[in-house]
TrEMBL record:
This is AMP-binding protein. Residues 44-412 form the AMP-dependent synthetase/ligase domain. Residues 471-547 form the AMP-binding enzyme C-terminal domain. It comes from Pseudonocardia xinjiangensis. InterPro entries: AMP-bd_C, AMP-bd_C_sf, AMP-binding_CS, AMP-dep_synth/lig_dom, ANL_N_sf, ATP-dep_AMP-bd_enzyme. It holds the Pfam family AMP-binding_C.
Length: 575
């Protein structure tokens, strides 16, 4: 259902009105999947019990390592909460954040919880076109960003958008270059006076772990990009299970290659450490040698990295004979895990490389266990956590050749999804008895585990998915493009990239890949959304109702099938 006009004028009301059903509350509190407390309670516990223990270890490529204790961590959360309050942020207001893996991100997320704000993290690769749509949809009151990052001027891009965003009250910039009309993060947040119990401190919003708290936009797979709206309790459901399986405690150091603006990064470096009094380890620029050195120096015990990054880390360990003696758990996922990566992990670390499966919408739902066979991660995503249910649906016998569609239900599934462009709000508990369609295809295993067999529809990507419909729509605005379909093909990292299959306008010269990418750059489309390959055809294959038969195109692009001759062009394929 679309958000009503009154709520769109008052975004706080829209998010405050969202609640899980009474049946969900009874079920998941009864199972212990949800709780009355919040991460702020966890933070206060460790501030009192072990104030000088390290809570965050943050590596910046330009300045080295900084360690923050639980005492400092709690103080920064209070300072940042006060700074947000002074900027007019109140319960239910949206704070958008686009920062690298800097320690300030951790404290800022918790500060939003402290005052009851809704936090909307965004990865650093999002550019103006998508950024404006997200900020406009959420009616964000405050946006926090870096000045420059990896050659891109984020603060200038935000400044250019600001006049078209009437709800945006403040642009907060963390960096060396801050304009007169921008809020200096260091001065206003980090250096703000702080005294325990100061009279001007914002009032505690009150523990409400079932209110919408975190908004994470997915790229969109087929159709409109959407946001997953999570509560502190849907986030807790995943965190508690991971912490329990790996017995996370005060001795642990948790490290991930994921951005802390991504679901995995928030879980691994903020929420799971807080449950056990452990430390989250951050790295703002992932480089294999530096990552291996940081893991060794920080005494990392737990690594969660996508196969490409984990493979690079293992290569450094192998080539440099570097030891990671503290490491006791290594997880990967997001794409198929190569068997040779699993074997290398065993030979170098004497650890099983464990597979994990999840999405922004369902959280972290399944995982291979520490006592599983060493090679299981090469073919399985493991078993669901307690409180998470799987449903494999098919109208035929389920086999690897004919897999079923995977649905998930549980306490970690998001409260709702929100269409970026339409504003369509779908409350998950109100549809299909709470079952969420992952869009993945799978087959069951004997012990209740699952093996993935591919993706339904036309999903493209790895850790982050490419918004297929959005890119196709933009490509169709190119004057030399008559028709287009975007399909995925595997690259040499085990992930997927996008191929544009194009029917050229007969009145124009056929476009090149460079032409298409230049066109998308001019539209300020995020770079990694853009196709990295071009195939030209006379016609797109369509079924009887006019729908493009993308599976035919996908097999052709991957070299696994062919197209009818009448659909091909008599020229070299574009690259």
């Amino acid at each position: 259902m679309p958000l009503d006009e009154a709520n769109m004028r008052d975004p706080a009301a829209a998010f405050l009105d969202l609640r899980p059903s009474d049946a969900q509350v009874e079920k998941y509190y009864g199972l212990g999947t949800w709780r009355d407390g919040t991460p702020l309670d966890d933070l206060r516990r460790w501030r009192e019990e072990s104030p000088e223990s390290v809570a965050v270890i943050a590596h910046r490529a330009d300045s080295g390592i900084r360690r923050i204790t639980y005492r400092e961590y709690a103080e920064y959360v209070e300072r940042f909460a006060g700074a947000l309050h002074e900027l007019g942020v109140r319960v239910g207001d949206v704070v958008a954040v686009q920062l690298p893996n800097w320690w300030q991100m951790n404290a800022l997320v918790l500060a939003c919880a402290r005052i009851g704000a809704v936090v909307a993290p965004m990865v650093m690769t999002i550019r103006e076109r998508e950024l404006e749509r997200v900020l406009a949809r959420l009616r964000a009151r405050v946006c926090v960003t870096a000045d420059r990052w990896e050659g891109f001027d984020h603060s200038a891009a935000l400044a250019e958008l600001a006049p078209r965003l009437p709800e945006l009250r403040h642009r907060v910039v963390l960096g060396a270059s801050v304009g007169d009309d921008e809020v200096d993060f260091v001065r206003h947040f980090q250096e703000a006076p702080w005294e325990p119990g100061r009279p001007d401190a914002p009032a505690e919003a009150g523990p409400d772990p079932d209110r919408a708290f975190l908004v994470l936009f997915t790229s969109g797979t087929s159709g409109e990009p959407k946001a997953a709206l999570h509560t502190l309790n849907t986030l807790y459901a995943s965190s508690r299970d991971f912490a329990a399986v790996d017995r996370v405690g005060t001795h642990d150091r948790l490290f991930t290659s994921a951005a802390v603006t991504h679901y995995v990064g928030i879980q691994t470096c903020i929420l799971i450490p807080l449950l056990g009094g452990a430390a989250g380890v951050l790295m703002d620029v992932w480089e294999p040698e530096a990552a291996a050195a940081l893991a060794a120096e920080a005494g990392v015990t737990y690594v969660h990295a996508v196969p490409l990054y984990f493979g690079g880390l293992l290569t450094v360990v192998q080539d440099q004979h570097r030891a990671l003696p503290a490491l006791r758990a290594a997880l990967t996922g997001a794409t198929t895990i190569p068997g040779d990566l699993v074997a290398l992990g065993r030979s170098l670390l004497d650890l099983p490389i464990r597979a994990v499966f999840g999405t922004t919408e369902i959280g972290l739902g399944t995982m291979t266990r520490p006592d599983d066979p060493f090679d299981r991660a090469a073919h399985s995503i493991g078993r669901p956590f307690p409180g998470t249910e799987l449903d494999l649906r098919a109208d035929h016998e389920i086999t690897l050749e004919q897999p079923a569609r995977l649905f998930v239900r549980g306490g970690a599934v998001c409260l709702a999804t929100l269409g970026r462009d339409s504003g369509a709000l779908i409350v998950t508990g109100e549809h299909d008895d709470g079952w969420y369609d992952t869009g993945d295809l799978a087959v069951p295993e004997e012990d209740g585990g699952v093996r993935l067999a591919g993706r339904a529809g036309d999903r493209i990507g790895g850790v982050l998915m490419i918004p297929v419909s959005d890119v196709e729509s933009a490509l169709r605005t190119h004057p030399a493009v008559d028709d287009v379909a975007l399909v995925g093909y595997p690259d040499d990292t085990g992930s997927e990239r996008a191929c544009a299959v194009v029917v050229a306008d007969p009145a124009s010269a056929p476009p090149t890949l460079a032409d298409l990418r230049h066109h998308l750059d001019a539209l300020k489309m995020t770079e990694w959304y853009q196709p990295s390959r071009l195939e030209l055809v006379r016609q797109l294959p369509r079924n009887s109702i006019g729908k493009v038969q993308k599976e035919l195109l996908r097999r052709w692009v991957r070299g696994e099938g062919d197209l009818p001759e009448e659909r091909k062009v008599d020229q070299d394929r574009g690259r």
